[in-house]
Write a structure and sequence with these properties.
Blueprint: H1 2-28, H2 38-51, H3 53-73
Helix pairs in contact: 1-2, 1-3, 2-3
Amino acid sequence: MNRINLEFKHYVVAVLSVAIALIVTLAIENLFDRSLIGPFLAAVALTAWYGGIKPGSVAVILSILACNSLHLSSF
């Protein structure tokens, strides 16, 4: 049971870090002409460092989805 809770925390970190990166990007996107990928790279790096490869992969997928949705909404 304890191992399941620990693994769940790693995935929560993946979701929260990408969500925070999305909020930061939405808050400051009007200040820059180019797209911001730095917060998403930081979210993936933090998640992979903290949780390992599986939560890191989840963070990569979520970051790709968030970046694509940001890119599509700018048209």
